[in-house]
Specification:
There is one protein chain. By secondary structure, the chain is mainly alpha-helical. The protein has 2 domains: 75 residues, Orthogonal Bundle (Arc Repressor Mutant, subunit A); 147 residues, Four Helix Bundle (Hemerythrin (Met), subunit A) (Up-down Bundle), CATH 1.20.120.530. It has 9 helices and 5 strands, in the order αβααβββααααααβ. The strands form 2 sheets. Strands 1-3-2 form a 3-stranded antiparallel sheet. A two-stranded parallel sheet has the order 4-5. Helix 5 packs antiparallel against helix 6, helix 5 packs antiparallel against helix 8 and helix 6 runs antiparallel to helix 7. The protein is globular, with a radius of gyration of 18 Å.
Amino acid sequence: MNSDELGFLGGLRSKTVTQSTYDRIKLDIVFGELLPGQKLTLQSMKSQYSASVSILRETLNRLASDGFVTASPQRGFFVTPVSKQDLIEIGGLRTLLECHAIKESIQNGDHDWEGRVVSAYHKLKIEEAKMLSGDESDKGTWKQRDWEFHLATISACNSTNLLSLHAIIFAKYLRYQFLVLTHRGDAAALEHKQLCEAALQRDSQEAERILTQHITGGVNHALDAMWPHPQLIAES
């Protein structure tokens, strides 16, 4: 998968150097190209991202405000470390935001919204079938379809602020997924099917129940897979 396919990360479609630099570094953090705890030096990043020191400094400060980078006046910039508590908090925030958004979408969604949900689920189901058959050659596309499905289910919430906040939290959640890239198999696939059905049946209570179970299951699976994990720099 090309790194510009995840639309919630900006998509590298910006015309400005500052925004495209932000998107590229953020993508590299989420995809694990820049590892948790890694020091980010302005001089070494100049050639890698074809950006000036001033743009890089501005970009890293912005990423620090979004929680993807940590900044220290004495030590410089570092990729934000991973930790159990951080993952648990991210899962809780995703549950809070996404459950509210899907409730609003179920209430407000029209036939076009239903079509987006059905189409996104169909594409996700194809990728899940590949994964379940043992074909794990394109995990990036699988996560892309996962994102598209969850976005479709909440896309009628009528709140750009909510969608923007959710995108940041989902990106942080996805970083943990890409660091390990494990999957829950049949359990997650079934939850996606049930969530699609509940949304189309306009059963917001059932949709929130399934979604909460789905996110909690994903967090617990990642926790089990990541700790202890010697290749990751984590704060216990």
